[in-house]
Fold this protein.
Amino acid sequence: MLQIAVFLFCGLIWGSSYFWIKIALEEVGPVTLVAWRLLFALAGLAVVFIVKKKRPPGNPRTLARLAFLAMLSPGIPFILISWGETRIDSGLASILNGTVPLLTTLTAHFLLPDERMTRGRVVGLVFGFAGILTLFGRDLTGSAVLSSWTGQLAVLAASILYAFSSVYSRNLLRKLSPLTITFGQMFFADLLAWSLLPFTELPLVVPHRPLTWFALAWMGLLASCFSFLFYHWLVTFWGAARSAFTNYLVPLVGLVLGLLVRGEKGDWHLFAGTGLILGGIAIVNYRTLFARVRSRSIAGRRS
């Protein structure tokens, strides 16, 4: 029961982030948003780091790898998604960012020798990319087409970076604990955001509305700090395949909040594109999940 609660918590928190980005963008710019958000995340992780008596890695090579990983995730993607949401709806952003599992499958095929493409994965990718094209097809006419497409491309670029980060972290950072990796990512990503501020959004905006601070704290402490720790805990009980079902919950939560709370427009392009992308994720993951469930079933019968 506790594992199910943690699963729902992670899905709801991550899925609602796109909604809260929209709220915060009403007062601050995208880079400022990311800088404050990551500062909250870093503060929360620092407390956990101290309580657990962890020490940051001192090896310069490891620190350099962590810094590079932080650029791939979450540094640049957070900025791209926040900037993209100045041009597109939060629900659409959540769906486009939901393509990360598909893009990770494609990236892993070229970079990891044990993650080669199969016919099932190819079919899943076809479904997923058909969904992306369907979403882009919403704005083929009208004066806002360029703004919408650039926003969608920004979120899609963030998804590509997330995919590369998944492969990179698997290859190079296997010996570090999840807490150390997450802390390093947030530290270097926040350093990036504050470093970019003088060139992008001066003067610095300190939010005045309590709702903006609540949104930043929600995204920082819950979505970027504690949910990552809870998710790693969930993986130890459920395994990576079962825990990855949050990939279905996150875009759906973002879509529902956008439609019902913010009153964003829903049409057949949005719903069909969502269905194709989620269907593609299901097809890509079907064989892996089925094989793990079957192996556990056999092991259970033998024990």
